[in-house]
Each structure stands twice: as C-alpha cells, then as structure tokens.
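Q: Got a minute? One more chain.
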Amino acid sequence: MNIQNEHGYSLVESLIAMAILLAVLVPAAMALIYVGSNTIAKDKIESFNYAKNQIEYVIAYQDSRSGLIEIDEKWLVKTKVDSSSNLYTIKVEVFKSDTLSLPLISLQTARIWYRD
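A: Always. Here it is, folded:
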C-alpha cells in the first residue's frame, strides 16, 4: 500500500476546516437571530401602543361602537364593546394587515359609564 496514492483529507485538515467554518457561521447566526428578535420586539411594542391608544379613546369618548379600524397599510385594530347595564367591557385586538389569523396583542378592560 502506497501512501502517495491515497486521496482525501487528513484529520488535521478536516478539524481546521471545521474551525474556520464555525468561526464564520456562529457570528452570522447570532446576527440573524438578533435582527429577527429585534423586529418582533418592535412589532409588539407598536401593536401594544395602538391597542392602548384605542382603549383610551373608547374610554375618553365613551364610544360603545364595535368595529375594525385600519391604522395604516400595516396595522388593523379590532374593537369590541359589550355592555351590561352601566358596565362596559372593552376588548381591543391588534393585527398585522398581512396576517389576520391571530392578534399580535389583545387588551381587555371593564368600565362603568354613567350616562345622563
């Protein structure tokens, strides 16, 4: 058996290649994870602010109408107001316009309104 005729990589060459690959892939993967989670956090904060603002609007104007509002081309806000005597239950859900299956955030509160 002649060593000169053997083809392939040695163990040392394979370990060096894997080390170089890991040195490039690990930071790249971490950067992608950071960018992805940053976008999700930004969407959560933005949707929470829209929901909070809608609840404050309903309470301030004692607006008992339910409905769907398009904030811009990216966000939809669904408001549902149920009443039982003077007790009003307000539920606000915020959706991204492109994914209407699940709300990104949902807030609910109850208020007593005394009307003249």
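A: The chain has a mean pLDDT of 86.
Q: Perfect, thanks.
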